[in-house]
Amino acid sequence: MPGRGSVSESNRCQRALVRLPRQSGPAVNFVDSTDFVVGSTELPKLCGALWCQTPSMRLQRRPFLRLAGIALGVFLGFPAVAQNTGLDLFHKMQQALGGAAKIAAIHDLDWTVMADTFDHDGKVIGRVIKRTRWIRPNYLRLDQIGPGDTYVLYFDGTGGWEILPDKRMLALAGGELEFARGYLSGFLLNQWLADRSGGFVITSPSPNVVRLSANGKGTDITLDPVSYLPVKTVGISLADPSRPATSEGDTLEWMRVQGVSFPAHLRNSSSGDGSADIRTEKLLLNSALNPQVLAIKPADLKPVVAP
Fold first, then answer.
1. Distance between CA atoms of 71 and 61, rounded to whole angstroms?
2. Domains within the chain, CATH numbers bracketed
3. pTM above 0.70?
4. What pLDDT was estimated at residue 211?
5. 87: Cβ–Cβ under 8 A, 6 or more apart, which residues?
6. What is the pLDDT of residues 239-264, one digit of tens each?
7. Is 50 exposed, middle or buried (0-12, 13-18, 19+ CB in 10 A)?
């Protein structure tokens, strides 16, 4: 990737696959709690040497971990189907997730995920841990540890900085700045309030599919016909801005935190990159995150994945 030093194809995959989320998959199990923390015994065993951008560990970042996703597709808008307009379906999804009022009441989020990543041949790449901190409206901090793709990124909606896998610290510019902007605008809490932001066009290209389009890019979200929770998300991943790729996400399990549903277990994939199996380790809402703390550069240049 330009400006990132030597980054292998498998490392790019990890970034793309660990993005927080992209949601998809049928609603399976729910866990109710004020703050959700999974004990280490519930985590999958180590599989090898971590969401390319996909579930937001660059998990999204790049494709896998930048949980996002992480994620977020690029499609042109099409007319909504007659039975359910895009906005009708969107509001049903929004209500299934907990309702617009509860989603809008989330001021900040601290989300840690762990992912096992695989290349396009199914070979294990390794395990990644990614921490995503977000403060409404435009503050984002990503800290990720993974084989060959350990990095830190800070973005305040205008600019920011990044610590690359080779320990270089650079101001966000070019493709990296584009990635940060896309990650923020496509962050799930922003997407779930797309009808309020004014920056999205909401349509429905086919039954039970909501399409969110912005700036010529978009995301297709397939909804469960009964629960109206997202079951699959398809879009374009910019985990590697110089090499856009189609990415898909499936949500296998949901959990409820402070009345809002979040993906607890996801499976993401990116064309030509591979896949990632992502599980939530910790999710805190409205914990009074401080923008000034998010902006602090680690003295040892290492990601901060624990409070």
1. 9
2. 15-72+108-196+238-294 (2.50.20)
3. yes
4. 93
5. 80, 195, 202
6. 666 666 678 999 999 999 999 999 99
7. buried
